[in-house]
Design goal:
Layout (H helix, E strand, L loop, with lengths): L1 E2 H4 L5 E5 L5 E2 L2 E2 L10 E3 L12 H6 L4 E4 L11 E5 L2 H12 L8 E6 L4 H14 L4 E4 L3 E4 L2 E4 L7 H13 L4 E5 L2 H5 L10 E4 L7 H4 L2 H13 L6 E5 L5 H5 L5 E6 L6 E9 L2 E6 L2 E5 L4 H16 L4 H8 L10 E4 L6 E5 L4 H14 L6 E5 L9 H12 L2 E4 L9 H9 L4 H4 L2 E3 L3 H11 L5 E5 L6 E4 L2 E4 L2 H11 L3
Parallel strand pairs: 4-5, 5-6, 6-7, 8-12, 8-13, 9-12, 13-14, 14-15, 15-16, 20-24, 21-22, 21-24, 22-23
Antiparallel strand pairs: 1-3, 2-7, 9-10, 10-11, 16-17, 17-18, 19-20, 25-26
Length: 488
């Protein structure tokens, strides 16, 4: 049990009505979860404004209301704290409530369009292999040491983040690797966290349904670096034109990595095949099971972060050789009889899809047919749809257009958006099957022996969202089943 004054440290308070020395129970921002003597933080969200539920929270027993706009009618015995920004206040309150756990951990935040999950997951794997108790906050999972908790948000809310960090401290975790999304930054979920290292992977079109313009999207990512203190380290991709932009006005120590130009940490691809990558890193050759140029960048960033955290280069290079691919990120399966290779990848942006297809084209053999299955998510950025279709057509022998997560949109309309700019000749090498299972089955039917199937867009996700209903669906599981049934 804590006093209200204990959690208001560093919160930008406009007005106090009541007593800040009261003892409260829990902190909630969902009025439905409020119980006796709780603190309710009213947040103006994308869909609903929490200020509309202040009375409901009070009726359920809230002792403290933290809000941007004070209600006209206030209840005796309830304490009201007016703040300038409820989201930032919630993050600071959560940090204070758990006694600033991020300050007691080596916290690494990774942002960018592509590669966040791979980098964070493999760093967790590498540090675990090095003998450390490590934590992970990612799209795929939350890991506290070797304990795993399923998740579905790239960056959880600030209450949840700090709760996990506190649990990690209790479990004697020393290093934590965390994906930091643009949504999370914009909504203040990562506010107040003490990052030892913030890293930038790359930037391409994504989330424009939320950020509206690419400039807004880019500048939101940059906030992570703008807020770093001098004692922290900022690591950016020197080969990405936005890498240097992230460092403008950044007070932290600045480190770069690259695969093409000179940088503090640099790798060069020696060989790239379906069996993995061979890289020259710091004049030492390393082989990794990961595949493709984009993974060369991921590995180089992993190397730079690990060394900056104190591991010696020889140890890092040795451990990189043992890293295993991340679920749904260029995940391979080859059928025994027909030797058809299925690749499941999370690529759901034009840049990510192009990177994956370029990689496949670089390593596939002459005459090896490539069939790509792709769709686009509903209720998301519509401008990327024709770009995704164009990329699939340009790099594949055959394309099957299908549903991704249509959510509340008509999946046929989404596919029509994708194919609107394709010519009749281009459409001739495509199939359209709205049901994803039928699309995977069709690809397995048309791909010849020794061919390749890319199933793009969902990666590790084992569900589909159609008309608000979430149902089980696993791309890798499905393609294994269809290839077995269709074996020649």
């Amino acid at each position: 049990m804590k006093k209200l004054s204990d959690i208001l440290y560093k919160v930008n308070i406009q007005k106090v009505i009541g007593n800040t020395e009261v003892i409260f129970h829990n902190i909630e921002f969902d009025s439905r979860k409020v119980s006796l003597n709780d603190v309710f933080v009213a947040i103006d969200g994308a869909d609903v404004d929490g200020h509309q539920f202040i009375n409901e929270a009070v009726n359920q027993g809230a002792l403290v209301i933290i809000c941007e706009n004070l209600p006209d009618k206030r209840v005796n015995g309830v304490n009201y704290i007016q703040v300038d920004n409820s989201r930032l206040a919630l993050a600071q309150i959560a940090d204070n409530y758990h006694d600033q756990p991020s300050r007691k951990l080596k916290l690494v935040g990774v942002t960018g369009t592509n590669g966040k999950t791979t980098v964070c997951t493999l760093l967790h794997q590498l540090f675990t292999d090095a003998g450390y108790d490590a934590g992970l906050l990612s799209t795929v999972a939350v890991k506290i040491g070797r304990k795993e908790i399923a998740t579905h948000l790239t960056t959880p809310d600030s209450l949840t983040i700090n709760k996990y960090l506190a649990e990690m401290l209790e479990a004697e975790v020393t290093h934590v690797f965390m994906e930091v999304s643009s949504h999370g930054i914009d909504q203040g979920r990562s506010h107040g966290l003490d990052f030892d290292i913030a890293a930038f992977t790359n930037l391409s079109q994504d989330h424009l349904d939320y950020h509206k313009t690419f400039a807004n999207y880019r500048d939101t990512k940059k906030k992570l670096f703008d807020q770093l203190p001098k004692k922290s380290t900022a690591i950016t991709n020197a080969d990405d034109k936005n890498g240097q932009y992230m460092l403008q006005n950044c007070q932290a120590e600045k480190i770069t990595y690259a695969c093409q130009q000179s940088a503090d940490y640099r790798s060069k691809i020696i060989a790239n095949s379906l069996s993995g990558l061979s890289l020259n890193m710091d004049d030492q050759e390393v082989h990794t099971q990961l595949i493709g140029k984009f993974n060369a960048y991921n590995i180089t960033l992993i190397w730079s972060i690990a060394v900056e955290l104190g591991l010696d280069q020889a140890t890092v290079i040795r451990l990189i050789s043992g890293l295993k691919s991340v679920a749904g990120r260029f995940q391979l399966f080859t059928s025994e009889q027909d030797h058809i290779t299925a690749i499941v990848d999370y690529a759901h942006t034009p840049d990510a899809l192009e990177n994956v297809l370029q990689t496949i084209n670089e390593i596939r053999k002459d005459g090896q047919v490539l069939v790509t299955i792709v769709g686009c998510g509903g209720n998301r950025d519509t401008t990327k749809r024709p770009k995704m279709a164009r990329i699939a057509i340009d790099y594949s022998d055959n394309v099957v257009f299908t549903s991704d997560n249509p959510r509340n949109e008509d999946p046929k309309a989404i596919i029509n958006d994708m194919t609107a700019d394709l010519s009749n000749d281009e459409l001739a090498k495509t199939e359209t099957l709205v049901l994803r299972e039928e699309a995977i089955n069709k690809a397995c039917e048309i791909v010849p022996k020794n061919g390749i199937i890319l199933i793009a867009g969902k990666g590790h996700e084992n569900y589909q969202i159609i008309k608000g209903e979430k149902s089980y669906f696993d791309d890798l599981e499905m393609v294994k089943e269809k290839l077995y049934k269709n074996q020649r």
